[in-house]
Automatic annotation (TrEMBL):
The lineage of its organism: Bacteria, Bacillati, Actinomycetota, Actinomycetes, Mycobacteriales. Residues 1-23 form the signal peptide. It comes from Mycolicibacterium goodii. This is ABC transporter substrate-binding protein. Keywords: Signal. PROSITE patterns: PROKAR_LIPOPROTEIN. Pfam families: SBP_bac_8 (PF13416). The keyword Signal applies. InterPro entries: SBP (IPR006059). The keyword Signal applies. It comes from the Bacteria. SUPFAM superfamilies: Periplasmic binding protein-like II (SSF53850).
Length: 367
């Protein structure tokens, strides 16, 4: 039996829509045929699954998860298993359209799909995208992290917070969402459109339910400041890093990467709460590499995979016993300390269809 100790260094991030972890310097892998895969005393795969996945020798993931997390996860998986990962990455809305188009044309080829919008993952599930599969760690997971029909899992809790450019921001930066609408207009705010991504919608929902007490009053106050509206968190973070805006709704992984690149940006954990959305993952029903896909799902939901995504992706793990995320070697606050605002998936789905058109109208977005 081969036991693998935890590692702490992975390949550098490579730009581009589609790439292979092997091209990023992934190792030959530690997994051995004929033996179960055991990492940190947790059995991730049986010997039979190891042999079948090794024979397939490849994996394709379609993901809406940020570049830093995706690369770290795929590099670590390849390091542990020797199986290279090719991936297609795009914001949730665009990825959804691509998947639906490819399914309709009969040329869909992903083994695993990871996406962050509950309405989209539910619709894809109803379309027959996923196959029922239970990972070995299923019993360790709270029921809220499992789909009702056993076809996908929530593998991370992703917060949206504030970040500001220390050189562009004038005055004392805010400590809460509420203070964004009290400014004098000198510091332009940026956020992702409600319809563009899972984080954009969850922020819009949080602003209406929590900050507006169920009304669109906060939306209207924020819209009156004429914020910059973007279609992805990555693009918004780039604008913040360049000083085109002074402050933005942001995600820790993108800000961490901007800091590594030397951008003068800092995170703010708002005192009036943090919208959090789940990141979902499932094995596809027509996976070209079904055993490698199952191995990947097992690995992502293992403590090893959960630790990698928390340490390098800066999202909160769903497994107990995994440390809080780290952001450039600085520990993030505990999840309970950021006043996480969770919304049941069914509520989010119901209100999304009703409220996104209203958000678009308030902020002057067509479509």
């Amino acid at each position: 039996m081969k036991t693998i100790s935890r590692r702490s260094a992975f390949g550098v991030i490579v730009a581009g829509l589609v790439l292979s972890s092997a091209a990023c310097g992934g190792s030959a892998g530690q997994m051995q045929q004929g033996q179960p895969l055991v990492i940190d005393d947790e059995t991730i795969a049986t010997a039979e699954l190891v042999d079948a996945a090794s024979q397939e020798g490849a994996l394709t993931v379609y993901t809406a998860v940020n570049e830093a997390t995706t690369t770290a996860m795929n590099d670590a998986f390849t390091e542990d298993t020797g199986i290279p990962v090719e991936y297609v990455r795009s914001p949730s809305g665009r990825l959804y359209e691509r998947i639906k188009s490819e399914m309709g044309a009969g040329n869909f080829s992903a083994d695993v799909v990871a996406i962050g919008d509950p309405s989209l993952v539910v619709d894809l599930d109803k379309s027959g995208l996923f196959t029922p599969y239970q990972v070995p760690s299923d019993a360790e997971l709270d029921q809220q992290y499992k789909s009702k029909n056993g076809t996908y899992y929530t593998y991370a809790s992703s917060p949206t917070v504030l970040a500001y450019n220390t050189e562009a921001y004038q005055g004392t930066p805010p400590t809460s969402w509420a203070q964004l609408v009290d400014g004098n207009g000198q510091n332009r705010f940026g956020l992702v459109q409600a319809s563009a991504s899972a984080g954009g919608w969850r922020l819009a929902l949080f602003m209406r339910e929590k900050l507006g007490n169920g009304s669109d009053s906060y939306w209207r106050s924020l819209a009156a400041t004429k914020p910059l509206l973007d279609t992805s968190t990555g693009s918004l973070t780039e604008k913040l890093a360049r000083g085109e805006i002074a402050i933005a709704a942001a995600r820790p992984p993108e800000i961490a990467e901007a800091q590594k690149d030397g951008a003068p940006v800092e995170l703010i954990w708002p005192t009036d709460g943090t919208p959090v959305h789940g990141v979902y993952m499932g094995v596809t029903a027509k996976a070209p590499h079904p055993n490698a896909a199952k191995l990947y799902a097992n690995w992502v939901m293992s403590k090893r995979g959960q630790t990698v995504q928390a340490e390098f992706g800066a999202d909160y793990a769903v497994r107990d016993g995994v440390e809080n995320p780290t952001i450039n070697d600085k520990p993030a606050p505990a999840l309970a300390d950021i006043q996480p605002n969770f919304v049941p998936d069914e509520v989010s789905i119901e209100r999304r269809d009703l409220w996104v058109p209203e958000w678009n109208k308030v902020f002057g977005v067509s479509g």
